[in-house]
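User: Hello, can you help with two protein structures?

Assistant: Certainly.
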Amino acid sequence: MGAFVISKRFNGEFKFVFTSRKGKTIFTSLSYATQEKCEAAIELIKGTIEKSTYLKFKSSNGKYFFKLVIDEIELASSRKYTTELRLQKGINEIVQYASKAETLDFSSDDFIFSDLDIIEREI
């Protein structure tokens, strides 16, 4: 099953990515000023995935990508795919798993290891 992963951009704004069940990023959201707006966008996608539109594009270097649109609002852009078939598989993964995907929050600035743990590993 896929997952929505919330993180912070370098400018302090929030974003989320939807990852496949294998851990590959399928799409990345726009930036949001607050975490609450970011979470609201995730819930919008989860609740209305059947209404979503996928605008497909081909980049100048021949790669394929799509933009996720709900109610005429662009919410995310996909990663680049080498073929149209892989692009469609990414879309299928969203349709199948997004509504029941879990949300993981990695947006805090807390470190998992203390400074002492980092120093000990460097020695």
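That covers the first. Now for the second protein you mentioned:
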Amino acid sequence: MITIINDTPENVAAFCASGEITKEDFENVVIPRVKKKVEQFDELNYLMYLDTDLENFTAGAWFQDVLLGIKNLSKWNRAAIVTDKSGVQNFTEIFSVLMPGEFKSFPKENLYNALFWCQNGNEVQS
């Protein structure tokens, strides 16, 4: 299931993925919210908090199809993937070369920093 993370910066479309993720999650939750943010801000600042394993993404929801679909209707600016899975963190860094905008991974403990980066383009000073 994908849910919208509330109480985030206005210019950030933020989501939490938990349990099984389906194509319908993206069609009914992610894509409408992304469209709304792009219409409001003429760019997309996106955050996905992964509270599930990638094995829980059904074939129809797999990143290749979903992210490429979103790419075609969006103006990527910044995208943060929040996860403690090193494989996903590495994939995010590689994927950033292929996509427009900036992609960055953050560990779960740094959710606030990820939101701040999505909103402002820089990280909170520690």
